[in-house]
Amino acid sequence: MVTYLFPEQVSIAAQKPATIDLHFRVADGLHINSHTPREKSLIATNLAVAETSALKLTGVEFPAGTDYAFAFDPSEKLSVYTGEFTVTAHLTAPAGNYMLQGLLRYQACDSRSCYPPKTIPVALDVIAK
């Protein structure tokens, strides 16, 4: 339903703030709620990263969602991601090689119903020099 596309490896400057773009794709015909859905009952898309003692995630930025309305109720708009979207991660690390491991949690829906929430792994080699 959602696939992590790239990158698999990045190089950053050691001890300096770095920005990494993580690219994802939502399968055709589906949408997922954005990071900030308009209704509290909807499951937001979220990225959780396991921090190591050296590699520090200092922030995550999600794109703005796109308005989506069902044909049966065009007045109610949802905030969703469709197609490809990019999450920006901000991190710092001392010199060395690290594995950034995270989980993207989302709920995919089509025009008729929503599926149970899923979590997919996000793995990225980070080389700080």
Could you explain how this protein is built, in words?
The protein contains no helices and 12 strands. Strands 1-3-9-6 form a 4-stranded antiparallel sheet, with no helix packed on it. The protein is elongated. The model has no long low-confidence stretch (mean pLDDT 92). Helix content is 0%, strand content 61%. The chain has strands at 2-6, 9-12, 18-26, 31-33, 46-50, 56-61, 66-70, 73-81, 84-92, 96-106, 108-109, 118-128. The chain has 129 residues and is an all-beta fold.
Q: What is this structure, in a nutshell?
A:
The chain has 129 residues and is mainly beta. The chain is built from no helices and 12 strands. The mean pLDDT is 92.
| Overall 3D shape | elongated
Q: Give Rg in angstroms.
A: 16 Å
Secondary structure category: mainly beta
According to DSSP, the number of beta strands is: 12
Low-confidence stretches: none
Query: What summary fits the major beta sheet?
Result: 4 strands, antiparallel
Helix content: under 10%
In DSSP terms, counting alpha (H) and pi (I) runs of 4 or more, how many helices? 0
How large a portion of the residues is in β-strands, by DSSP E?
over 45%
For the largest beta sheet, what order do the strands appear in spatially?
1-3-9-6
Order of helices and strands: EEEEEEEEEEEE
Q: Would you tell me the overall average pLDDT?
A: 92
